[in-house]
Design goal:
InterPro entries: Carb_kinase_PfkB-like (IPR052700), KDG_KDGal_kin_Halo (IPR054871), PfkB_dom (IPR011611), Ribokinase-like (IPR029056). With 317 residues, the protein is α/β, with parallel strands linked by helices. It is 37% helix and 22% strand. It starts with a strand and ends with a helix.
Amino acid sequence: MSDLVTFGETMLRLSPPINERIEAATEFEVRAAGAESNVAIAAERLGATATWTSKLPNSPLGRRVNAELNQYGIDTDVIWSEEGRQGTYYLEHAGKPRGTNVIYDRADAAVTTAKPEEFDLNLLQDARVFFTSGITPALSPTLRDTTAKLLQAAQQGGTTTAFDFNYRNKLWTPEEARDTLTKLFPGIDVLVIAARDARTVLGYEGDPRQLAHKLGSQFDFTTVVVTRGDKGALAWHDNVVHDHDAYETDTVDPIGTGDAFTGAFIARRLAGNDVPRALEYAAATAALKRTIPGDIALVTKEEVEAVVSENNDEISR
């Protein structure tokens, strides 16, 4: 039995050498990449036992994804499909003014056909936390229904449900996202949302503290975490808002920072830490992730605790 079960698509990320253009590249680095598997790995690294569940094509590429996730220490519970393909995305890294460019190639991926009855609901209901994100229902009408039903099944089994709003404008419009994701809110206990998404998608106004209070009072969440990019994050819990700044970091690869934050926050709440302490661990894990190439936070609990301790020592001086 796992502490945490996550559900969603994991793609293969193909990246040309840094600053190289995709159209001119002669080689690509390949890594597994997906919000929900990233969260599972970060949580595992911070002390939770985690399982990622999804649907993959029974192909060399699908097996490549599964094998890589296994090597990072998490369990996988995969529905193997003879239809559909393995989703990929291409990531072009560059400095200003070009910046980072992401090109998705995930149409007709096997996961888009995943139905609730294909999953072992006992896996979700035996876990302490079930996690998915707003990326998953954006991928197909089938996944909108599946996401809703898995959240409901987990909650009915007594499992805490956690959800990262995770709006992606390359997948759907703000209006489509708002209509779909707010319908999922009754099945969610812990919501993680970027302040910009609360404004852009939900149409809320105010500073992050006001956004957290509004979400917490309007919907029946137990915890609302509002992220603020390089300004850190805050969490509303028991009608109290706890604030934490971001840690200073030298950025090598920002992709997956939010997943690292969420995975660490969930792991430390599972370990019994209070919300302020979980925010500390989450911020430190996010900072460390930005120093690591790829989507995955390959950190250790000791490294995270060292960042937290060093920061606390500086504050006390």
